Amino acid sequence: MWTFAFKRLLSGAVTIWFIATATFFAMHAVPGDPLTRDKAMSPAVRAQLEQRYGLDKPLVTQYRLFLGNMLKGDFGISFTQENRRVNDIIREHFPVSAMLGITALLIAFIGAVAAGSIAAQFRGQWPDRLLMMAVVAAISVPGFVIAAVAQLLIVQLNNRLGQPLIPVAGWGGFSHLWVPALVLGLGTMAYLSRLMRASMLEVTNSEYILAARAKGAYGWRLFWSHQLRNALLPVVTELGPAIAALTTGGFVVELIFAIPGLGRYFVQAVQQLDYTVIMGTTVFYGAFLVIMVVAVDIAYGLIDPRIRYSRGR
Amino acid sequence: MNLLNVENLQVEIGRGPNSVKAVRGVSFSLAEGEFRALVGESGSGKSITGLSLLDLLPSKSVRRADRFQLENLALPNQHHGQWRKLRGNRLAMIFQNPMTALDPTQKVGWQIAEPLCIHRGLSRRQAWQRAIELMERLAITDAEKRAHRYPFEFSGGMLQRVMIAMAIACEPQILIADEPTTALDVGVQQEVLGLLNELRESRGTAILFITHDLGVVAKIADSVSVMYAGQVVEQGPVETFFTGSTTKELHPYSKALLAAVPDLSGGKPLQGIAGQPPDLRRPPSGCGFAARCSQRMEICDQAPELFHDANGDHRCWRWHEAFQTYLSQQGQVRGAQHD
Question: Can you tell me the ipTM of this complex?
């Protein structure tokens, strides 16, 4: 098991190196550089700045310096936000994105397991049809539309009540968190619901469920001890990509709800060619995803004894 | 007194004109300690008959019976809550493929202990202890350690023992075994049969053994019911079928089945049964086997009832009194064909 985790982490490190290298050269291939501004800059000032940021050195030297600093965990200083270290930007803003993403994932996962199970239980009847219609709607309507509609509804609700019950935007406690998290998680929830439903149907029609019923198991006992655990397996494998989508894909929701997450800085950095911030956030996201995928693999082993044992050997 | 009486059991799967009339009149009884084999081709309704005894039919199926009785208890209608108290308790089932009939994510010990928690109200700890005892009784060595293992770590034979342990945990009166040896190799088959035989001898458990292996039937069954196209076409004591099959009358289908058993001495060529069983979405109005029967008569277009004689029940016009009259009227020698 631990050898397995170690191997996965090692291959993850290679992945991160590859992401870093590809991003580095792709970024430098884009015309212009962080010093290109609307305002004209005298060649002397420019040369001084280039020297200060090391942009005058050959690309390969810059790459070597970057890799060395990356191994030390230092991504340098932002070009556009003066004197702000990239590490500080990540440290301050990533927890916000992570909080939003993880809450979204929790809502999506729990909602999907419940919706999928209910739909499978009532296959072909109205609860199933209703849920599957909602799933199609949630998958096809883009996130920014749902976000805007959600805000509109909150405004209406607050107006009716005459007092702000749910904040429309901003960042603070749980009251600020749950609506954007729900909006962010909705697509994932819809997708996972379908998966859960299919998997639950398959499990329900399996021979071991028939055998469990032949023993006298029924209702909740049958659900908890036999159906749920087996039906969860394919859903859990999808959690890795889902975490990826939610923690890094929150730009739009963060923007609409005015949440100070890392996504905003990531997008800004790309627009302004802020080299250090691009590299820092990209490598950080890459590392985060690799770790999450390994964590999901390990969780999978905890649920499915077959995987756990084959890895142990 | 019989433990179980079933009269005129009918099962229809699905709804509308394309529903499958899977069981179309099955009657049998099980006495204490009786080992009854239910024989027939695939699709003859054997397994559905077995499942209907536990109310485990697929959804959207309808079961009817003139009589459906376990000792003094009339078995309740479909999906009645009372079934939950019977399943795994007084009636239990062993499935064909132990590899797929055990929950892959649950420890074997818990799977055996589960019916005891459900029906006997034992604590998990007590039930676990009982599960280990059951495993030891079924000659699973190292039971204490093995109880912690998962199904994928067991061999097929071991798993079938686990399944039997699971089924007999609450000491059921009736055990339905749906082809429990088909998925196993020959040596393991013998062990499993031995276990079942010991069970009925020591505890008086009645066993309904669903199979198409006539060799097994000849070895340990007391009585045989032959099913064809959803109906029992012939049933009686096992001797009727084997020891005396050359002198006594048998249903043409039973005869064909016996002829289809490979003879390893190489004495006679293997005889298959020509044709296909009827489509049970639209079962024939007459005798179900008529289309494939070598001794077909005009009257076979009408459905025969079960006729009784000293050897058991036979669903064939040849047992009807009128047949004798018919023979003498026709003055034919066709009767000579069925000795």
Answer: 0.85
